[in-house]
Amino acid sequence: MLDLIIKGGTVVTPDGVGIMDVGVQGEQIAAVAGPGVLDDVGAGETIDATGMIVLPGGIEPHAHINVPVPDYWAGGDDGVFTQPPEGASRAAAFGGVTTYVDFAGALPLTPGAVPPADPIMAQIEQRRDIFRGHSYTDYTFHYILAGAIPPSTMGEIGEAIQSGVASFKIFTTFHARVPMGHLWEIFQEVGKHGGIMAVHAEEDDIVTYMEEKLEREGRDHASNLHLAHNNISEDISFRKVVRLAQKTETGIYFVHTTAKEGVAAIAEARAAQLPVYGEALHNYLEFTCDDYLKPDGLAIHTYPAIKFSDDREALQQGLVDGPICTTATDEWTPTRTSSWPGTRYEPFAADITESRRECR
Ligand SMILES: [Zn+2]
Question: What pLDDT does 88 receive?
């Protein structure tokens, strides 16, 4: 006998959408079956979901919960955090998400933040302490490596993967940028032990050059962020990362793919049988850089910048064809923990110059 059957809903599965029944045993989905098939098995409880959409076991692969918000994004206030696990996981559950993947390790958005000295697994445990007993859904973590990585940390990667922390996040831009030599070493360790890299890939030299050029020309309003965090940057950076992954036999998960060039780089890698996966955020699938010009238009921004309509189309088509394998929110909701749900903060500065000061 099952604990629960959710009957008659329009069920979304990886293979298609249809009227189906979902059987739950303990905390796990035990069966997804045609209407009535599970009736013979019986259940302790039955929920009639007729007319509703049922998403069994949705995964949010990219969330930032209960992390400090840099004071430049919090109106000069310190002590502001993104929302705690209670609120974020409750919202996730309402959207059909039963597991989310958050982050542990370095704080990549806080300039000058010294990467924690504790061992990787100790930091994972510290993050688990924040979530344990406070989350409505399951959770796990990508581990963020930032800057120059000491040999001792490199030596912990294998153990972390054996312990189930298999995904390592790195940046190729911003102050958290990992130098290429260190990246090579990380990829080798992660590849050797069967983990995967989660990569924020932008070509830092191009981004920096364009920021300075736009500032020099007086065009550094944040509505031009896509000219700095641009298509050629994604093209070159993705291809460098894929090349490194190929040489080190490492799996790559490109977080927030934003451009047709990124989609093409992933598609080519996958056609060559490489384990390379793309993620798209709702912002990039829905909006274009033209939306930056609307009132409050910068509220939809995240890095890398939102690109053009043909990029949006390539991302949408990529979801259908395969190179874009997941959608994520990059959940980042600043709130005062003392007065939750708190004040809505303007998330980004009004000009690129400012954003460069913030992020470098
Ligand atoms: Zn993120």
Answer: 93
